[in-house]
């Protein structure tokens, strides 16, 4: 009996060791409203030796959710790709930004995605030439903006370290640069045709501008799919901030104008005009957000994602 108990104990220790090898927590410095913050991410490792491709997964306004981020992480690991799930909220003491998107600003949230790449670039278990990023809603926006070369360079990433693939799920395309220059990596935007949280038109319009500037970008719209079409349950939040009508567009002279209100928010010198953005947002922002699952779009988007990963991260 004692031998049996000892064998069980050894087996349990071995399982615990294997689990520890397959999952790892990392941290990296980012920013929270001008102050440094240590952001964390969980790496889920596939059962492979040698440097492996990786997919960074960035959550949306509701935070990390196992039914979604966990499911996609498992899909990646099954393909032999390390899954890196960023948690941009917990280290900042935030649980959600649905009611207040400024709790974690877009600029800080987007920076997290780039700082994660910088951290992964020094990890010997990662194939630094084959790191992709995907994200949902707010995280979809960071997955898109991480393709913009000027933002990558401004974040201090070394030359030669760039994401190899960008897959934004239903992002907000509210910030649109004039003649935007991307890193050249492929971008696949996956949008819901019935999305009223961020809308579809802003991203389709910006995709045209990106393509005209030389980006490798494709947009797929899933018919009748709402925001969060890969989620587990429908939701409707009356007090949720809705910016689907807000689009800040950079002009040829480098000033910025909010499209609906026509208000200039920053001058050609790049300096914000005091009070202008708040005034513009008061015109274009509404309250009320909703979304929910769409089985057809959810299934197809997983298959589409796998195809992009096989093509650009695994080289199949």
Features:
four-stranded mixed sheet; Rossmann fold; 32% helix; 14 strands; single chain; 316 residues; eight-stranded mixed sheet; 8 helices; alpha/beta
User: CATH topology, what is it called?
Assistant: Rossmann fold
User: How many strand elements?
Assistant: 14
Q: Mind describing the biggest β-sheet?
A: 8 strands, mixed
Number of helices: 8
The helix content is 25-40%
Rg result: 20 Å
Strand content: 25-35%
Q: In terms of per-residue confidence, which ranges show pLDDT below 50 for 5 or more consecutive residues?
A: 6-20
Entry summary:
By secondary structure, the chain is an alpha/beta fold. About 30% of the residues lie in helices and about 25% in strands. It has an 8-stranded mixed sheet, sandwiched between helices.
